[in-house]
Amino acid sequence: MAKRKVDTENRGFQTRWESEYMFTEVAGKPVCLLCGESVAVLKEYNLRRHYETKHADKNKNMDMEQRLQKAEELKRGLKSRQALFKKAKSQGQAAVKASFILAEEIAKSARPFTEGDFIKNCMIKVCDEVCPEKRQLFLNVSLSRNTIAERVDQLSINLKEQLVKEGKYFIAYSLAVDESTDISDIAQLSIFIRGVDSSLSVTEEFLALRPMHGTTTGHDLYEEVSRCVNEMELPWEKLVGLTTDGAPAMCGHRSGLVAKIREKMQEENATGELTAYHCIIHQEALCGKALKMEHVMSIITRTVNFIRAKGLNHRQFKAFLTELETEHGDLPYHTEVRWLSQGKVLQRCFELREEICLFLDSKGKDTTQLRDEMFLCEMAFLCDITSHLNAMNLQLQGRDHVISDMYSTVKAFKTKLTLWETQMRKENLSHFPSCQTMKEKLSTSAFPSAQLADKIGMLAADFRRRFADFEAQKSRLELLGNPFAVDVESSPPNLQMELIDLQCNDALRAKYAAVGAAEFARFLPDTMPQLRIQAAQTLSMFGSTYLCEQLFSLMNLNKTSHRSRLTAEHLHSILRISSAQSLTPNIDELVEKMGHHQVSPSTSNK
After folding, report:
1. Inter-CA distances, 75 with 11, 16, 21, 269, 520, Å
2. Contact (CB, 8 A) for 26 and 33
3. 360 by DSSP, 3-state: which?
4. How far is CA 107 from CA 52, 114, 122, 568, 577, in A?
5. How would you classify the pairing of strands 239-244 and 170-181?
């Protein structure tokens, strides 16, 4: 015989039971107003038996009106107790939520976990002055070092769970991988993911930071990247691109990371081809070395170091500039790893060239090289061309860049180089203001325009060589950049019919003009599935490892000489929180998972 199901019998609580049996309904269950016990099954027989067995003697002398008054009084008491409980519960949840919010801010600001105690002390002092009656509520917020560390880990896990959930909907994804060393000389492998779902929405997030305590060969790098992909439960056949810093361990033809991943994709029978890129920003910086003007930079670096290295010289130089009322009051240092610093140093040295020579003369230093006209012409040229390179570098930096736009930036710069070379040979210095200044001040020798034009030619040749892999993907990138200008005949056969439909659609052409290339892909109709897949693959690609470099800066802010013992797990959690872009921690969900735990003051002050 089938078991009876009480919830299907449609039993309802009757108001008369309040006065007859001293019961009320709470959350669908009958609760005794006298003892607080609840009865499992909402049935009059059960309520009557409970009342007659346990409470019949207490109210036997009351008439019906007195019983009604008694029931109402007991109901008011029950409601007040429930309200008090709810208030305590909500206050406890608010305290936990506040600790999560502050832990997130501490992680984002690269502060140590012990800052929580300092923040709490400040909160209590402010509370004592502004709202002393609320002091206990502030005391209930636990901000001890252990609590902050635990909250940061929970926030990080929540973000990772969200990313894993997003990853299940990716139809294409790419990885950016770079490696650096922290202050403890531990190699750290940074991995970012850029995925695109079926609606062509892009998710660009931090995937992992893996410490590598041993060797950092291509096989070691592959093991870590492979582990990350498997943890995310991402299918290898949807991996489209891999962007690296171009190191041999990354790009080695046989045992590099790229080669190992291609082998893995073949093992997994992936039909797509992995496209590997060397970071555009790295390559742009390397192209600058093709000018072979280290002799100019070495003289400038020595000069700056002489002025800045000794405190007395530096103070006297700044006082000297103040006395001359120059526009600039100091010289910046040049740091090799900071790519943009070279341009700033060159610009400042060129503008203060006369003042620098006067100061060095006063110190008894030889300034023959600094006054040489050929050297000054080369410095002016290096100053201008570095300024142009820096402007392009800044364009390439940042998040959410589409690779087709980055390729367009590089292509435009190559065209500019061709123009500048032609103009330099004709001594047209319209785009080289420092060179123009030097040409006007030359006394005897002519401006070396032919020699400098050759330098521009060398730079252009190096750009063509280094960005050859992008040229090989030109048709693919242009398909996303401007699908209305693509030659249908030279396009892959599976795209030709859809391309004709697209290029003949005036409404889509107007939409492209309104929203631009990056956003237009979302408006491709479902009737063009091949174009949508192609767009998703291109949108997912990283053009640079900028995000990895930015993460290493965050890593160095957090893991300093004062926090060198920060564990790998805590560092990983901090970086996931501080680098999150499209994802935000679901703090309300975390508070709910805490089981409505209310932190006591004694716990928070441990």
Report:
1. 22, 14, 13, 69, 62
2. no
3. helix
4. 61, 11, 19, 14, 7
5. parallel
- Give pLDDT tens digits for 6-23: 444 446 777 777 777 778
Measured distance CA(242)–CA(248) in Å, rounded = 15
* Residue 513 CB-density burial (10 A; 0-12 exposed, 13-18 middle, 19+ buried): exposed
- Which of 193, 224, 223 lies closest to 210, judged by CA? 224
At residue 211, the 3 state secondary structure works out as strand
For 512-569, write each residue's pLDDT tens digit.
989 887 788 889 999 999 999 999 999 999 989 999 999 999 999 999 888 878 899 9
Per-position DSSP letters for 237-283, written without gaps between them: GGEEEEEE---HHHH-TTTSHHHHHHHHHHHTT--SPPEEEE-HHHH
Residues 492, 486: Cα–Cα separation, whole Å? 11
Phi, then psi, of 212 in degrees rounded to 5 = -125, 100
Q: Which string of b and e fits 206-245 if b means at least 16 CB within 10 Å?
A: bbbbbbbeeebbbebbbebbeebbeebebebebbbbbbbb
Going edge to edge, which strands form the sheet with 202-212? 202-212, 187-197, 170-181, 239-244, 275-278
pLDDT digits (tens, 9 = 90+) for 23-47: 887 777 888 877 777 787 777 777 7
DSSP bridge partners of 202: 196
Both tokens assigned to 343:
């341009």
Which residues pair with residue 209 across a beta bridge? 190
Residue 302 and residue 346: Cα distance in Å, rounded? 13
The encoded tokens of residue 331 equal 């010289």
Residues in the chain: 606
DSSP string, 9-67: S-----THHHHHH-EEEETTEEEETTT--B-SS--HHHHHHHHHHHTTTTSTT--HHHH
Which pair of structure tokens corresponds to residue 248? 């041999």
Sequence-distant (≥ 6) Cβ neighbours of residue 342 within 8 angstroms: 297, 334, 386
Q: Which residues contact 112 (CB under 8 A, 6 or more apart)?
A: 562, 563
| C-alpha closest to that of 261 among 232, 231, 237 | 237
pLDDT of residue 155: 96
DSSP 444: S
Question: Nearest 5°: CA angle at 451, between 449 and 453?
Answer: 65
Q: Is the dihedral of CA 562, 568, 571, 573 positive or negative?
A: negative
User: How many angstroms separate the Cα of 321 from the Cα of each of 242, 329, 348, 472?
Assistant: 50, 6, 13, 52
Residue 579 phi/psi, 5-degree rounding, is -105, -5
Amino acid residing at 300? I
Q: Which of 92, 203, 100, 82 is nearest to 156 (CA)?
A: 100
Alpha helix (H) residue ranges in 325-372: 341-351, 353-362, 368-371
Residue 49 tokens read as 């038996």
